[in-house]
Each structure stands twice: as structure tokens, then as C-alpha cells.
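Posted in: Structural Biology > Protein-Ligand Complexes

Title: Requesting predicted complex, alpha-D-ribofuranose in pocket

I'd be grateful if someone could produce the C-alpha cells for the following input. Sequence and ligand are given below.
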Amino acid sequence: MNPTPVVLDVDTGVDDALAILLAVRSPALDLRAITCVAGNTDVDNVVANTLKALDAAGAGDIPVARGAATPLIEPVRPARHVHGDDGMADLKLPAPAREPVGEHAVELLRRTIADGPITLVTLAPLTNIALLLRTHPEVADQLERIVVMGGTAVVGNATASAEFNIRHDPEAAAIVFSAGVPITMYGLDVFYEPTIDPPTADRLAASAEPGAQLAGRLMQYQVDRYRGGGTLGDAGAVAAVIDPGGLRTERYPVRVELGGTFTRGQTVVDRRDWAGDLDNDPYVASHPQPGLVDVALGVDAARYCALFLSTVER
Ligand code: RIB
Ligand code: CA
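-- Reply #1 --
Done. Output follows.
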């Protein structure tokens, strides 16, 4: 079977780096490009961290482009408490072996998608993708699918109701979710389940192979900082492209809340099979119609962990 052409949009990020290692090494994927955006850390750190992850994976030929430095409306809010000061576990890795390409992320996305067909995997705030869709609307008809690591049908992480990637740029997410592109939402309802145990993380970290070693060191960082295990996180969204059978999804209308003191950035997953008495309210009807989204509600965590280990470990 021919490998699936993919592009990643990242805010590398501990778990973004795990996703990059998996995408580079999977024979089921043809990684065409990676675009960077501010999120877990500032966009220049994201570029450097992305290039370092590609260096460790031995993938010096994958083009990397710098994208948006801030969300459309919100300020930048780096997640140092989760990813460290440099965004990649403060591992003091050597400087990247190369520079990013000179073009902006939106241009690299546009021309790569035009040469498609491309599955776009977004692992970060959706600022670059919103700018792409507003600058080159034709892209919406060219994309095969967007697999969004983001959102939640129930519990948030950035707030009680909103997931980090969506909450950091709700306006961008609203643009992407109403663009009419087929979307799989790999959200918090599955995100934390695929987790590697500490002894396995230690085994990877002891590897002489740079890619496996980096994966192990990143997972050890997670074990030390929280959760008691090495969460695949963003790498789970890449696994969902490689092995969609490991994911259970249901198709629902999804809206992104832009107002709300306590709900801004919530992905409102409408699981009703009836119309409510306020659905026809003129105020509700004045907003864009929600897109139908394949929402991930179950994941075979052991299957995705096994896939990650068999692919990344050499
Ligand atoms: O909520 C988790 C998401 O936010 C992950 O993509 C993580 O890397 C951060 O970007
Ligand atoms: Ca991320």
C-alpha cells in the first residue's frame, strides 16, 4: 500500500517531538513538510526543537518552515510548566544542524497541499491553518482530511472546558472547524490514554540510537514531571493516521465557543439526536453552521503504544 502523504503543524513540544519521530520512521507515512507555530513555547524555539527532533531521527531532508508567532487574538502563553523553558524538556540538545526554509509556513503549506493529496495533522494551536485558509481558500477543497490534536467532548486541560491547542487560539479553531474540510478530532477524550511505562522509557533512553534515545529521554521527563508515564500525546494523532482502526470515532456537529468567561475555546460537541428548542433561535442561527466532525471517543492504547515502540525503536 502506498504511504499516506502527510504534513505536520507543530508547537514542539515534548509530545510533538514524539509525533515527529513516529511520523519520520513510519513506512505507512510520507512526511512531506513540517510547519511551526507558537504554542508550547515561542515559535523560534518551536523551529529549533523541530529541527533537533528531525536531526535525532536522521531526517535532514524534511522541509521545516516558521509560522505565526502569536495567536490571531490571544497573547502567547507558553506552557513551561509542562514542556520546560525551551519547550523540549530542557535536555540541552545540540543546536540544529540546519536552518528552516526561507518561506513562511503558510506558503510551504499551500504549495505542499497543492501538490497533494495531503492529510494535514495539526498538533498545535491552529493559527497557521486559519491563516492558510483565509489566504488561500482553495486549500479547503484540496485537503484530504485534517487530523486535529485538539478539543474535548467533555473535560478540558487548559481550563475546565477547553483543551490547550483550541484555547490558545479559539478564533483560529473556529475558522478551521467551519471550513468544510473533513476533520478527525483527536482530543482529550483519548489523548492521555496511550502511555508508555517508566521501565520502557528507561530502556529507550539507554539506546545508542539517537531517535529512540530522544524518545526515551522525553518520556522520562514526563514520568518525572507528571502522569507517572510517558504519554504519547500528539504521537497518538499520528498513530491514528497510520492505524485508524485503533480509534473509535462518532460523527457530530462541533462548534468552537468564542465567548464565555469559563467556556472560551470549548469544542461544543453536539451529541443530541434531536433539535433543541433554542436551536432555531435567531442568535444561534446567526452563527456559522457547525461542521460534522469525526470525534475520537475511544482508543486502543496498547495498540498505539506497540505501534510507537515498534516504529521508533530500531
Ligand atoms: O492539550 C495538549 C496539546 O497541547 C498537545 O499538542 C501539546 O503538545 C500542546 O500543544
Ligand atoms: Ca503540540
